[in-house]
Amino acid sequence: MSKGKRYTEEFKIEAIKQVTDRGYSVNEVAERLGIATKSLYNWRSQLSGKKAIRTSPDNSVRIAKLEAELKRVTEERDILKKAARYFASNPE
């Protein structure tokens, strides 16, 4: 006797990402994928404890670019602060 359909871990993660990352409702995702809403809620609670929903490679690249930009902007700000102090102390 079968207990029902078995879904892969990847399928579960992608289904949960549609709810958590893309902002779809659980009902929308469940209906689109043909699964029960209870299953999605269960998967979300199971996977949240495992840290299974990881940052995608695209997000990792984006984060690295943003960190580099933050560093550059911070350095520029510091240079401008030093210049402002210099010109404030040496009025000509």
Structure description:
It is a single chain. With 92 residues, the protein is an all-alpha fold. It folds into 2 domains: 1-53, Arc Repressor Mutant, subunit A (Orthogonal Bundle), CATH 1.10.10; 55-92. The protein is 73% helix and 0% strand. It has 4 helices and no strands. It has helices at residues 9-20, 26-33, 37-50, 57-89. It is rod-shaped and about 85 Å long. It starts with 8 loop residues before the first helix and ends with a helix. The model has no long low-confidence stretch (mean pLDDT 84).
Briefly summarize what is shown.
With 92 residues, the chain is mainly alpha-helical. Helices cover 73% and strands 0% of the residues.
Walk me through the topology:
Layout: H1 9-20, H2 26-33, H3 37-50, H4 57-89
Backbone CA Rg: 24 Å
**Would you list the SSEs in sequence order as H and E?**
HHHH
Report the principal-axis shape: rod-shaped
From the 3D structure, determine the CATH topology of the largest domain. Arc Repressor Mutant, subunit A
Largest pleated sheet: none
Structural class: mainly alpha
Quaternary structure classification: single chain
The helix tally amounts to 4
Number of domains: 2
Measured by DSSP, the beta-strand proportion falls in under 5%
User: Which class of the largest domain in CATH terms?
Assistant: Mainly Alpha
Helix fraction, binned, reads over 70%
State the low-pLDDT regions, or none. none
Strand count: 0
Instruction: Give the N-to-C terminal Cα separation.
Output: 91 Å
CATH architecture of the largest domain: Orthogonal Bundle
**Averaging pLDDT over every residue, what do you get?**
84
